[in-house]
Structures are given as C-alpha cells and as structure tokens.
Amino acid sequence: MTMASCGEGYTPKMVRQPYLQSAIADSVSVLWRTDVGNGCEVRYRTVGASRWLTAKGVVRVANTGLIANEVTLTGLDHAQVYEYQVLTDGIEPAPSKMYRFRAPLSRADTAFTFFAVGDVGEPVADDGTPDVLGKALALQKDQFHFGLFLGDIIYPDGQSEDYDKNLFPYFTEVFPYVPVFTVLGNHDWHEPQQNYMQEWKLPNNEHYYSFTYGNACFIALDSKNGEMHEYDTQREWLIRELENAREGGTDWLIVFLHHNGKSCTYKEDYEAVVSLYPLFEKYRVDLVLNGHAHTYERLNPMDGGGQLVPGGLDKAGFTSITIGSGGKLRGIGTDPGPFTPDPDNCRYPGLVAKSVHDWAYAKFHINGKKLVGQAITTKEHEVVDTFELVK
Ligand SMILES: [Fe+2]
C-alpha cells in the first residue's frame, strides 16, 4: 500500500524527532514521524566502529495523517553507546542528525540512572512548562539510561493530535537519546486505544507491564481514574510479576503508576492503590512512584497497612513518592494558590519526609545495593531532596 506520494528528489519532512521505546534486554525501538514515506530504516553502530549496521522497519499512516516510522534494533551489546541516523525512503528526513543511545544493561550491570516525572504535557500557552522540563532533562541526557513518565502525559484529554503540540517539540534533545517508559494517567484515559496506544510502544498489553533493567525490576500499572484498570485482572497479574521478580533474585523492585495511595497533597487517598500496599510489603517493593498531584512529596516508608515503619530509610517498608511536578504546578492557571502539603487533607502525622512545591523531576541512581534519589527543580536545577536506600 502506498502511504503517501513522494516525488523524485523529495526529502521527507521530519515532523516528530526520533523517540526510543521498549529498551529491554538487547533491543530498542526507534520511532519517528514524517509527512510522507513508504519505508524506513535505521543505520547504527557502536561509537567508534567503522561498519554501519542497518535495520529495516515498518511505516503506517498514523491517526493524525502523519507517517509513523518504526524500527526495532535487536542484538545490541549491553551498555554500549550507539550512534544512529534514521532514514525514510532511503533519505534522512529534514531536519535530522546523528543521535546516540545507550543499549540496555545486562543483569550483571548494577549501576544506572533514570528519571521519573509526571503530569507533563500542559500547553505552554496555558502556562504549562513542558518546555522547561525538556531543557532540564536535556542537560543530563548523557547520564540517564532511561526515564519514566508517570501519567497525565497529555492535557487535557490525551489526544494524539496534542502529542506534537504539547510534548514532542519540547523533548527533541531528550527522546532521541533516552528511552522512556510511560503509564496512563486519568487525562490520558480518553479512548487510549485510539490515542495513547498509537503514540507509545510498550510491552505486554501496554496498560500494565514490567521490564528488567540491570538488577532492578520495574512494574508499570494503569490506575485509570484512581480505581485501577481491570482491577482484579491487573492485581492477579501484579502478584505474578512480583513473585517472578523475587524468585528471579532482583535486587530492586520499583512500581510506577499515576495515582497516589496515601498522600498529604490536595489529592485524596486512592483506596485501590492503598489496597495494593499489602502486596508491596509482602514482596518487599522498594519504591512506588506516582504523579497526579502537581507537586513533589516523598513519604516515609510504610508497611502493608499504610503505617509508618519505625527506623527510617534503612529499615523495611516501601517509599512512596509523588512527582507530579513536571509541567503543571498546582497554583497555576485556574487552580487555586500554591500549597503543599495540605494540612486539612493529611490525616497521618509524620507521613511526609519531604515536600517541595516547585517544578521538579526525580533522578535515581542505583549502584548495586544502594539507591540514591534526588528531586531537582526544572528551572534552577537545584537539588531540593536527597535520600538513600541501602540493602
Ligand atoms: Fe492525574
């Protein structure tokens, strides 16, 4: 089938710069969008190598009318840095350039860095700050092995047509270099099959999935509007994943989803999430990362009953962090003035370890049995929270 006509000598226009997906095991998928195209490929090699490798992919007409190019690279050497260029119809789309990525680590590699942030794609015209976040993350792109987007990726309704308005243009120095894994937020939950699923390439059913990176297992959940998508089915799946992770001997177990369980922000405690706490305790989940509230808030470690674990970070319990401070700080636009935590909403004395009401993302560095987490403001690049977990 002809996707679009492109006459002799026509250079396809790059409408969406490359973005890296499903960086798992020895594989990475490269996606980009052009105005025309009937075929696509990626040329790649480890930095310094003399010989280029080529992988062909597939093109399809996206729901926005653009051409979605997708190439999956396999057989990558763990942890190696590759340079690559993308070709549509045998030509580099304009503008494009040489990009780089780092191949996923093996199980034996136990040092890596990732970012996590949610609630990003608010229009800049409405005082959203995806542009500021994109610049902040770009400064550290060589450090990040991958990133987690914690839902509410596109406001107001997660529409495909808004991805190239509210998100991708601001991450052209991030997405071609750093693979991202996403979860659905409530704002993304408008016909996700026709929107969200068309934009991302994720494992499993794309609603919930897991992947191993180094000595850590990451589990992505779909909390829908707070009640969890397919609660019973997803919970059963989660139990199996947690069992597998523990039997597989992973050092770190990290769950990420959009909604919070307990919190002291202006958001309610989502009972469906709280109902998973006993599993988090049983399977010794280390971190639970969420967005939703447009602020940063790290809680002290809790047990399966949501009670604080005495002894602080070097004891048992999971650490839950809200990082919904990506692009739409509450207090901006139509929202009431800034506040966090909300003392009227927090019924748990001592729950909050650190709260910062500023635009910020989180950076995590795992090195063997030690994890260091930081919150970094997107405007001033100031480290406003630091904590350590040690096995
Ligand atoms: Fe949300």
Explain what the structure shows:
It is a single chain. The protein has helices spanning 130-139, 160-166, 196-199, 231-247, 271-274, 277-282, and strands spanning 14-24, 27-34, 40-46, 53-56, 58-61, 67-73, 81-88, 99-102, 111-117, 146-149, 180-182, 209-213, 216-220, 252-256, 287-290, 296-299, 319-323, 352-356, 360-367, 370-377, 383-390. With 391 residues, it is mainly beta. The protein has two domains: 14-102, Purple acid phosphatase-like, N-terminal (Immunoglobulin-like), CATH 2.60.40.380; 111-390, Purple Acid Phosphatase, chain A, domain 2 (4-Layer Sandwich), CATH 3.60.21. The strands form four sheets. Strands 12-13-14-15-17-16-18 form a seven-stranded mixed β-sheet, covered by helices on one side. The site of fe (ii) ion has 6 residues, from loops.
Quick summary of this structure?
With 391 residues, the protein is mainly beta. The chain is built from six helices and 21 strands. It is globular and about 70 Å long.
